[in-house]
Design goal:
By secondary structure, the chain is of the alpha/beta class. The chain has helices at 2-12, 47-58, 79-86, 100-111, 130-133, 156-166, 184-196; strands at residues 19-27, 30-37, 69-73, 90-95, 120-123, 143-147, 174-180, 197-205, 210-217. Helices cover 32% and strands 28% of the residues. Helix 2 (47-58) runs parallel beside helix 3 (79-86) and helix 3 runs parallel beside helix 4 (100-111). The longest helix is centred in the C-terminal third of the chain and has 13 residues, at 184-196.
Length: 219
């Protein structure tokens, strides 16, 4: 029994965690408390996630997540997935394996007994073994969300391939991508993104330098 209790505890608590404190938000009529950590970029809350959360809450007729299957790429602390879940979506939050413990903690803490569906957490490395781990069309989503996933790293082409994998020609999947413009790499990725998808600028937050794009696959 002691071993089982330890295993259950390890599911909910990060094995390595350096506290930065908590961030508090209010979306969809609920107070949300997010625990951050300083060990990885994915354990911090970024402006794109906040902007997209605000947009989803304020534009529910335009983007109705009720009973929709939603996948988040690079979920990080889980704030965006939490809000989508509270808005009635069936959510799968994905990120690298070392992010999942804190992500799971935040998701369960803020959606238990609040959300229509229990959110799921899954490891996903961009561009790697997508057909094996997320075969199409078995894994089909109404919406794919991504917030502040573009920054100077070597995985931008893998990120674009991952977006294409989940948002395919002939599918009904809509991609919502929010990003703060920081570097030339952001602009170059935006050009590649717009050439790969039917993309429209859905909203812009000039003070935060954040843009939100809506995209569907090109035939």
């Amino acid at each position: 029994m002691a071993g089982e209790a330890l295993n259950r505890r390890n599911i909910w608590e990060p094995s390595v965690y350096y506290a930065l404190g908590k961030e508090s938000f209010c979306y969809a009529g609920h107070d949300i408390s997010i625990r951050e950590s300083m060990d990885t970029y994915g354990a911090l809350i970024w402006p794109g996630a906040i902007a997209l959360c605000q947009f989803l809450e304020n534009n529910q007729q335009q983007v109705n997540l009720l009973d929709k299957a939603v996948l988040e790429l690079g979920a990080g602390t889980g704030l965006l997935s939490i809000v989508a879940s509270l808005l009635g979506a069936w959510v799968t939050a994905t990120d690298l394996p070392d992010i999942l413990s804190n992500l799971t903690f935040n998701l369960m803490r803020n959606t238990k007994s609040r959300s229509r569906y229990t959110p799921q957490v899954s490891a996903l490395a961009w561009g790697q073994q997508l057909e094996r781990n997320f075969p199409y069309p078995a894994y089909h989503y109404d919406y794919v969300l991504a917030a502040d996933v573009v920054y100077p790293h070597g995985c931008l082409e893998d990120l674009l391939d991952t977006m294409r994998h989940f948002c395919r020609p002939g599918s009904s999947t809509t991609l919502l991508w929010a990003n703060k413009i920081r570097f030339q790499s952001d602009l170059r990725f935006t050009e590649r993104f717009e050439s790969s998808f039917h993309a429209t600028l859905l909203a812009e937050f000039p003070q935060k330098e954040v843009r939100i794009y809506k995209a569907t696959a090109k035939e």
